[in-house]
Amino acid sequence: MNTFVMDQQRAQLIQTEKMSAAGNLLAGIVHELNNPLTTILGFSELLLRDGKVSDAPRLEKIRAEAERSVRIIQNVLRLARADDSAPQIIDINESIRRTAELAQYQIRLNRIELDLNLSERSPKVLAHSGEMTQVLLNLITNAIQSISMVRASGKIQISSVVIGDRIRITVTDDGRGIRPSDMPRIFESFFTTKPTGTGLGLNLSRRIVREIGGEMSVSNNKACGATFTIELPIVANTVGENAECSIDDLDLLPPDRSVLIVDDEDHITELIETVLRDCGYRTDRLNDGAPAIELMQRNQYDILICDLHMPGVSGRDLIEWARVNRQNMRVLLLSGDVARTDVNDYARTYGIHFLSKPFSVSELTKAVQRLSS
């Protein structure tokens, strides 16, 4: 192995370690942000629903921008954190939209017009959401850089179309294109046409696509620029996967259930209690896990809603106590640490319903209604 390749690999290892450290730091920050974002989203939704504000349009803007903040930080986490869980069925169109939103700053900065022309069929693929974001973001970034080399503005079009049992995704730009002599090597490791490139992005992207049974290719456009094409196998929709009752339907189902709410953030427990009492549930709320066990010893609750990470007695401790002493009690686990796969794994292992922060009022109500049915 020559010195150049060894230096490139060493640089890549260093960069990988930096990204891992940054991902861990970012995950901690996001975990702390998700609690206030839950409060902002929840109470703004309650105020809008109840009509208790004089300036609803401005409050709607606050709620919408909070939702936008949630999407951005969750997309960054999907990209920054390694995912060693099993692939999931994901909506590829939604993955494209999330990635485009993540790249919005660079798109605006470079005066790029982004056109999304996506299939109406919402095709599903079996993949890691974070890896698909990485692939799509790499193609969008390359397209932006290709355009910026030849002009001050340009256009990128991302399309998806279902062809038989596969979904074809194309990312087209009007940049400088690829030199014919470079085309055979474009997916090689360490091959790059950019002064500061590592030559690993496209190679890794194609490897990810191939690992899920797909293929990636590239061609130059007739006029200018290039088109990268990804083809992925479609998985059949799960029957009833989108069947959910509306928030109006929930009012028709009298709950007659008692709920214990435990979260170390007082605003979160207040929000949950307000929502559930409006729906007819009987509730108690605490901000400490230790007295929660004492309360469960004295009272019979139908549902326990608790945060996973709390100082002292944690959500895991409460759930373990309930599994031994209150086997009929349903559990809804809350967590703002959306990047950690062990949270989902823990919930699946013990058959616990899981709701990630931040959540909307309707998401909370539907989750609790499922436990009550």
Query: What's the quaternary structure here?
Result: single chain
Range of helix content: 40-55%
By CATH's scheme, which homologous superfamily of the largest domain applies? Histidine kinase-like ATPase, C-terminal domain
Measured by DSSP, the beta-strand proportion falls in 15-25%
N-to-C SSE string, H for helix and E for strand:
HHEHHEEHEEHEEHEHEHEHEHEH
How does the helix and strand content classify structurally?
Answer: alpha/beta
| Strand line-up across the major sheet | 2-4-5-7-6
Number of strands: 12
In DSSP terms, counting alpha (H) and pi (I) runs of 4 or more, how many helices? 12
Brief rundown of the structure:
With 373 residues, the protein is an alpha/beta fold.
Structure keywords:
alpha/beta, Heat Shock Protein 90, Rossmann fold, five-stranded mixed β-sheet, five-stranded parallel β-sheet, 12 helices, 12 strands, 48% helix
